[in-house]
Amino acid sequence: MDKQKVIFKDLGIIEYKAAWDYQETLLNENVQIKSAIRNAAAVPDPRLPTPDSRLNAPDSRLTTTNYFLICEHPAVYTLGKSGKKENVLMSDDELAANDIAFFNTNRGGDITFHGPQQIVGYPILDLEKYYTDIGKYLRNLEEMVMITLAEYGIKGGRSKGETGVWIDEDIPGRERKICAIGVRCSRWITMHGFALNVNTDLGYFDHIIPCGIQNKQVTSMQKELGYTVDYNEVKEKIKRNFEKIFESEMI
Hints:
This protein is α/β, with parallel strands linked by helices. It has a single domain, classed as BirA Bifunctional Protein, domain 2, CATH 3.30.930.10. It is 28% helix and 28% strand. The protein is built from 5 helices and 12 strands. The protein has helices at 16-42, 92-97, 134-150, 221-225, 231-245, and strands spanning 4-13, 66-72, 76-79, 101-104, 111-114, 118-124, 157-159, 162-167, 176-186, 189-197, 217-218, 248-250. Strands 1, 2, 6, 7, 8, 9, 10, 11 and 12 form a 9-stranded mixed beta sheet that branches. Strands 4-3-5 form a 3-stranded mixed beta sheet, with no helix packed on it. The longest helix has 27 residues, at 16-42. The chain is globular, with a radius of gyration of 19 Å.
């Protein structure tokens, strides 16, 4: 079986809303393409207009496009669809005074933080080209992060009933989350994704109840290892391990 092609884009440091809007654009393009494919199958007509002018070129094939976006965000708290605003322990005035943005989002999960030296990954994948199983998709995102952490001697694991990557997840009082995951899926096209704490300032997590989970800690690669980690090196490992876990080829 041929590997799926995935367009890789490193967006660098980008405002959360700009990255969210870009994801929505890519997702909607793919959803429109799927609609066009269904319409073409129902009423074959070579003159059928396509939703994207890129697809009008001679001999082009009407197909969705996979993307893997990586970026960093300035300080921002984001709340998932099932989240509660009271899990943010700062008032709107305090958020503004500390230059921290806040967004209600359409992803799954509760409250989390994004900020400098945190790797945020947004796969825009057509799961119909992989498997139509959201649970498997989430477990594969976790696996990708866990094998990356293992390259640094960090043992990541899964906490029962809680999405994300944890350390010492089976030791009461020592459980700590190193990577949050929250996604959205529309017609099997994914968006949003994961946030891995590399050298992240963990003080920001003191002002929220991370993921809405009481009495559990948040950690980073830097805290676990006791030194500042090469951020770009971790990005390259994430990219390579994405290709491995998702049996894809970055282009």
